[in-house]
């Protein structure tokens, strides 16, 4: 039987590369929206333009109506964020917008594709480093054309763990985030890191540079492509409470192994985050 999603996968890589070139040449980082006083969730004109370019190219190639699209900027404007059985593209045009605004050199384009609610492939283009990470279900993970694999470190004391502060600045959440970081740092581990983009963080787990990444407050478009890449590189994905990974739950641990993931989970102080799909249904 012919491979039904090969063409879509190849096209996604091409589109991610074009989008990355667009981000690199943008040079403009005008902040358009800064939501609420307790959050610092930046959006630039580049985010909006690049999402239009990506979705426009995908619609032109695959026909409007046959595929669904969940894009960070479209959802911000009120479009649905519900994963159905329909072939669905999940897109973050600029993951690491704060980095982009400040010239901090980690910015990624993240494109994932799901069918029957199952992720088929993920493509992450770390556009300032010019590294193309990609994976298809059951076919391994790659950086450019080289296969990548998670690290084999199983001793938490020899690990580097990534987390982020997210965008919420409410005292209660920030306290829990820092308390969790302190608990993990003092296990002790070799180090704590954060690139400022969930997509890039997941690629760092997939390529073995770090042992794990966790965050509460991320969105499905930040992690959908990375989920396929981590899994195909031999890693695991779990909920922060140790249950199964749920793409729409806005929380996740990904790691090189169950051992490392479960050790971190013991230290995570969970705080509430509204699901991506519920948040939209309310609109
Ligand atoms: O909004 P963008 O697309 O830049 O993505 C987010 C990052 O991916 C998070 O890890 C990170 O913690 C922030 O929440 C950041 O906003
Ligand atoms: Mg993002």
Automatic annotation (TrEMBL):
<dbReference type="InterPro" id="IPR000760">
    <property type="entry name" value="Inositol_monophosphatase-like"/>
</dbReference>
<dbReference type="GO" id="GO:0046854">
    <property type="term" value="P:phosphatidylinositol phosphate biosynthetic process"/>
</dbReference>
<dbReference type="GO" id="GO:0008934">
    <property type="term" value="F:inositol monophosphate 1-phosphatase activity"/>
</dbReference>
<keyword id="KW-0378">Hydrolase</keyword>
<comment type="pathway">
    <text>Polyol metabolism; myo-inositol biosynthesis; myo-inositol from D-glucose 6-phosphate: step 2/2.</text>
</comment>
<dbReference type="InterPro" id="IPR020583">
    <property type="entry name" value="Inositol_monoP_metal-BS"/>
</dbReference>
<dbReference type="GO" id="GO:0007165">
    <property type="term" value="P:signal transduction"/>
</dbReference>
<feature type="binding site">
    <location>
        <position position="95"/>
    </location>
    <ligand>
        <name>Mg(2+)</name>
    </ligand>
</feature>
<protein>
    <recommendedName>
        <fullName>Inositol-1-monophosphatase</fullName>
        <ecNumber>3.1.3.25</ecNumber>
    </recommendedName>
</protein>
<comment type="subunit">
    <text>Homodimer.</text>
</comment>
<dbReference type="GO" id="GO:0005737">
    <property type="term" value="C:cytoplasm"/>
</dbReference>
<feature type="binding site">
    <location>
        <position position="92"/>
    </location>
    <ligand>
        <name>Mg(2+)</name>
    </ligand>
</feature>
<keyword id="KW-0479">Metal-binding</keyword>
<keyword id="KW-0460">Magnesium</keyword>
<dbReference type="InterPro" id="IPR020550">
    <property type="entry name" value="Inositol_monophosphatase_CS"/>
</dbReference>
<dbReference type="InterPro" id="IPR033942">
    <property type="entry name" value="IMPase"/>
</dbReference>
<comment type="similarity">
    <text>Belongs to the inositol monophosphatase superfamily.</text>
</comment>
<dbReference type="Pfam" id="PF00459">
    <property type="entry name" value="Inositol_P"/>
</dbReference>
<feature type="binding site">
    <location>
        <position position="72"/>
    </location>
    <ligand>
        <name>Mg(2+)</name>
    </ligand>
</feature>
<dbReference type="GO" id="GO:0006020">
    <property type="term" value="P:inositol metabolic process"/>
</dbReference>
<keyword id="KW-0452">Lithium</keyword>
<feature type="binding site">
    <location>
        <position position="222"/>
    </location>
    <ligand>
        <name>Mg(2+)</name>
    </ligand>
</feature>
<dbReference type="GO" id="GO:0046872">
    <property type="term" value="F:metal ion binding"/>
</dbReference>
<dbReference type="InterPro" id="IPR020552">
    <property type="entry name" value="Inositol_monoPase_Li-sen"/>
</dbReference>
<keyword id="KW-0963">Cytoplasm</keyword>
